[in-house]
Amino acid sequence: MLARLGTLALVLAAVGGGAFWVLTRPASLSADTLAALQSHSADPQHGEQVFWTAGCASCHTAPSVDATASTEARMVLAGGRSFVTPFGTFRAPNISPDPEAGIGTWTLEQFATAVMLGVSPEGAHYYPAFPYTTYTHATPGDIADLWAYWQMLPADPTPSAAHEVGFPFSMRRGLGLWKMLNFDPAFATPVPEDPEAARGHYLVEALGHCAECHTPRDALGGLDRSQWLAGAPNPVGEGRIPALPPQGWTAFDIAAYLETGFTPEFDTAGGEMADVVANISRIAAPDRAAIAAYLVALRASPNP
After folding, report:
1. CA triplet 184, 187, 209: central angle to 5 degrees?
2. What's the pLDDT tens digit per position in 41-53?
3. Which residues contact 8 (CB under 8 A, 6 or more apart)?
4. pTM of the model
5. HSE-up of 233 (CA within 13 Å, CB side)?
6. How far apart, in whole angstroms, are the C-alpha atoms of residue 70 and residue 130?
């Protein structure tokens, strides 16, 4: 009897382990996305606009590079910044075109798989400190343009620092289960009918990843879509990140803030928002206006 129970336990463990392995396997780009990437005539000039909108420099420049740094300094993606979370401390890797320390040997397909699906060229899950659940909504054309611009960035030989993540979060395979709960192919809010607000909707929800800071999270770190951009606790425990847009701000106020860093009360952006302004101030003025139009429309909606 004991032998039979032991055999049954082994069989159940094997079945459970196999199911876990299948359910948590890293995803691959769809055939349609691959075809769109490969057929797209890449435009690095537009890719630069995607680069600043997506905030790549905010996380991947060296810790010594702040919001006041020159454009040239913010293009060096040497990594090294630390991000403290309830799950551990994550460190931004070197993603410069350096062939050894960075991602200089990657292909467009590998780059798109990392950005849109959170999967490394080796087939491992990336931690969601990398906001791929937002970037997954980007168009293949924008990703291809971004990659074309990436080839123009300076290489840097700084080695990437290791994360400090304890068990069980150190088991990357388990992130496959997290992705099952938090990868949603649909946008969080409906696309507005107004063309300008619709453009802003895409910039905020697909590239700008504003929700990563301004939306509260559940116990597993997933975004609570029922409180989209409604404000959230600061993950480092210092104050609260406000709702978007701040109460009483007009579209003009928002666009001006994203360009200059000055609030309507003539205060200035600080902390992480100073980095955001340093990025968004470099994009085209109509796109800043579109972001503002979307945020104002979002708050005007009965179900923001």
Report:
1. 90
2. 999 999 999 999 9
3. none
4. 0.89
5. 10
6. 24
